[in-house]
Amino acid sequence: MDSETTHLWTLLTLGPGLAAAVLISLNGISLILNIYKARKIGLPYLIGPVSSTNPFWHATHTKFNWIIQKYGWDGLKLSCLSWPLEHRHRMAEKYGLTEGPDWVRSRKISSAPLNERNNAVVWEKSIGSIEELLEKDNKDGLPTKIDFLDHSMSILMAAGLGTHYSGVLSEGRTYSSRQSLEIVIRGLLPLYLFPRFLVPKRILSAYHDFGEYMRSLVEIEKAEVASHENGIHQTKRSSLISALVSEYLKSHSLDETSEKTKVLAKPYTNTDVVGNLFLLLAAGHDTTGNTLKYTFSALAVYPEIQDWLYEEISAVVNEFGWDYKAFPELVRCLAMLYETLRLYPIIPHLFRHTIAATNLDLNDAHELDSRVPSSVDLPLGVYTLVTLGSIHTHPLFWGDDGLDFNPKRWIKHTEGQVPREFLQSPAPKNTFFAWAGGFHTCIGKKYSEVESLATIARILYSYKVEAVPLDGESVKETKLRALSVMEDAVISPTRKIARPDDFSYRFIQRDPQG
């Protein structure tokens, strides 16, 4: 064997071991630096084998997450995105855990069409979609089933994009718009982590199809906006895509030498339009659709809550019909939505990152528990993970029944001869973050409330929700099985029921005579 071959063989033999040694050394240095930072901050800390922000870890660990949660140590459990779903406030009690001009512009543009006029459209489309689904599914007399993700997509397409969702494949496409969106959402990490030739073909096909769907919608909208500006169409459409396209056209119509152009962060591009459409479609479709799945699962488990809601719905519909004016009167339905998101937050974490040294005021928490410092100093580059499963159930905020499902906790009554119900959080301020909070509050909060309440009210007005028992199963056993399934969740990328086939419910038409 000549010297060159010997060197090559040595490199091939030692290369993987050397790379592993370098990786372990770098991780060790990072661990030491992080321990130093944690001690300097003064908060309790845990040591895990992998960073909780490692994207490759999150792309792979879900396959064996149940083993980690059952047998792993606390540091390993905390590296999994699903730990707040498993342990809620118990982990917090044990350890005492308590952006730029482009982002601002995108938020402003995206917020514009999410107004009362559009909310009325969301209400109307939600009612119509449910009536269509119920009529279609009930023709053969079988118990009705509803695909809430399909329902949510149809509302988004109508109110957000100003178009109709049929679910039918377009010529030359492998997937429908909804199918491609769902596959891309679940394939985000492989798309982000790996070169294209390593990404599964199914994800790449969906990625291509979704891009084509969005680009075709953008081109259609450009023509619509241009026809409005030329006086061909007198009514300007109020939809998400029209706002994004209008910004694109405005940004490209400015004189490059003008002062207004100079102050813009950068021109709005086709990529910006399609990217924002993807983010808002993914957020609106996945979150609201899965929220409704949890809501109706809970209703199937607690039939007495259905009766309580029906009492309100029937009174409101008798007065307002299915007009948008009924929305603010559905206080109990809103409490049902809030209680579902309190115990089953679809976005279980709020991620934040310090871009400068920051003093975090913890006075409110300190007043409730003296063990919590009144403030902590966070250095530059610290990632914080606000775990909603802890905050939403902690007995300090929600009482000893914080883990119980009880939407009535949100209801208060006005004083006077005819007391009226209104919604008010039973917990202190800043303890409910289903739509984030502060400057980062979700711009689609009202949109999701309108869609959810319209859906809940329209279904419960005509139908009861019934849990489907297994053969020989008692009512109590069915309830325990259902709750076990609802608790077993995965993050992909929002919260979803991990074993959806292990529990089902059906819709049974109400007796018209009551």
TrEMBL record:
Native organism is Orbilia ellipsospora
Q: Which GO terms describe its molecular function?
A: heme binding; iron ion binding; monooxygenase activity; oxidoreductase activity, acting on paired donors, with incorporation or reduction of molecular oxygen
- Which residues does the annotation say bind heme? 442
List UniProt keywords, sorted A-Z. Heme, Iron, Membrane, Metal-binding, Transmembrane, Transmembrane helix
Check the record and name the InterPro entries matching this protein. Answer: Cyt_P450, Cyt_P450_E_grp-I, Cyt_P450_sf, Cytochrome_P450_monoxygenase
**Superkingdom of the organism of origin:** Eukaryota
- Which residue spans traverse the membrane? 12-36
Name the record gives this protein: Cytochrome P450
